[in-house]
Amino acid sequence: MDNIGLKLSRNAVLFLAIALACGFASFGAWRAIIAPPAAKTGPTIKASKAATDRPLKSQPRQTQTGRTSWYSLNSKTANGEQMDEYAMTAAHRSLPFGTRLEVENLDNGRSVTVRVNDRGPFVGERIIDVSKAAAKGLGMIVDGVATVRISPQSEIK
């Protein structure tokens, strides 16, 4: 049998390409109209000292419970400070820089007060990363991770 193929003129190919493009565009527009609104995943992380970083006075102080780890870097933190492993500092995804937190290790009952000066953690389900000094105070240097409860004590003004 001879090679059976569809021979289309240049105009026919151009017409099909335009029709497909219009179909995809209209599908996107239609989907935007009928699709349910996207779920909000939480606050946007900003690494600046802008007024939008500060919480509204009506925001309640919330306690969080979850996992933590400790870290030490040879670089600057998100607020521009040089990382200091001997300072009682922490990284949190959304709390304003300068917020003081009580961090309690639920595995051994030890607690420390840290100041948020960085963003993170960016690993797994962790809620906070603490400096090496804070990790020593929490008794978690060897394990590297712990279950903690964090409670905001004060916020920047």
Q: What is shown here, in short?
A:
By secondary structure, this protein is an alpha/beta fold. Helix content is 20%, strand content 26%. The protein has one domain: RlpA-like domain (Barwin-like endoglucanases), CATH 2.40.40.10.
Biggest pleated sheet: 6 strands, mixed, barrel
Question: Mean pLDDT score, rounded?
Answer: 78
CATH topology: Barwin-like endoglucanases
- DSSP strand count: 6
Beta-strand residue fraction = 25-35%
How are the strands of the biggest sheet laid out side by side?
1-5-2-4-3-6
Morphology call: elongated
User: What is the H/E string?
Assistant: HEEEEEHE
CATH class, named Mainly Beta
Fourth-tier CATH superfamily name:
RlpA-like domain
Distance between the termini: 84 Å
* Helix content percent band: 10-25%
Uncertain residue segments? 29-60
> What is the level-2 CATH architecture name?
Beta Barrel
Number of helices: 2
Question: SS-based structural class?
Answer: alpha/beta
From the alpha-carbon coordinates, what is the Rg to the nearest angstrom? 26 Å
* Integer tally of domains: 1
